[in-house]
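Bug #77: duplicate submission created two jobs. Keeping one. Sequence:
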Amino acid sequence: MTNPYGRSPRRVKLGSLLRRLRKDAGLSGEALAAALAVSQSHLSRVELGDAAPSPELAERWARHCGAEQAARESAAELAESVMVEANSRRAAQARGLVAMQREATAAEAAATTISEWVPLLIPGLLQTAGYAYHLVAGDFPDRDDVAEAVAARMQRQPILFDRGKTLRWVIGEAGLRWRVGPSDAMAAQLDRLALLAAEPHLDLRVLPFAATAPVWHDHGFSILADRTDGHGDLVDLELLTASANITEPAEVEEYKQAYERLAALALKGEPAVAFIRTVMAEMREAHPAD
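Kept job's structure:
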């Protein structure tokens, strides 16, 4: 998870291009923002290079300003490259695994509400040190800073006890059953998850395989909302080679609605705790020691 805000050469270039198109069209920022259904402050941040528009917004922006097809495509392509320029896996590794965790800490601290759909793993904020170590070491087998990264991940967890935050998760059943590390590490992880699911100030839900789910979202996402740093809500997507941040309000709203649909189908409270402990017992029976 990296900061989607802040200037970079490509963001500044894209912002300058879009600002020039607006001015050439004789449109005020207020008029264009209204036409594109975005806030004027978001439009201003895009033009300054402080926020990245989605490719779809960049194309609509250029089209509304009367730009030719080539210019519209250029704006969309540049926006696409901006979305991943600072978030590539290679760039993240170059910064260091500890730096990646510190970036996540800063992003989480700025959000009042965090909602995560995690279909295949245990969310980072809920991980034990043992689970996190096997996960990070498996993902980065050639790194020598795994232990430090795990320690930094654990340092993110005091946010769990911040009553000023609204913290929400929907975890897929696969996340409970996918064995990351040996049996004792998984047992400890599931036990911790059950304890956290029983905490009334945390909204931790589990979506079983057996749930009747008319919607399906096969990639996880995190929604960081009600931010206190002056920026708008954002969605963070973790992909194989990069992470992508979505900041356009209309797209963020789609993810919020998707999360609510998933949450409505998931178990919470005592049913969630019982389900987690059932999975834990089944895993112990199938893999008593390894």
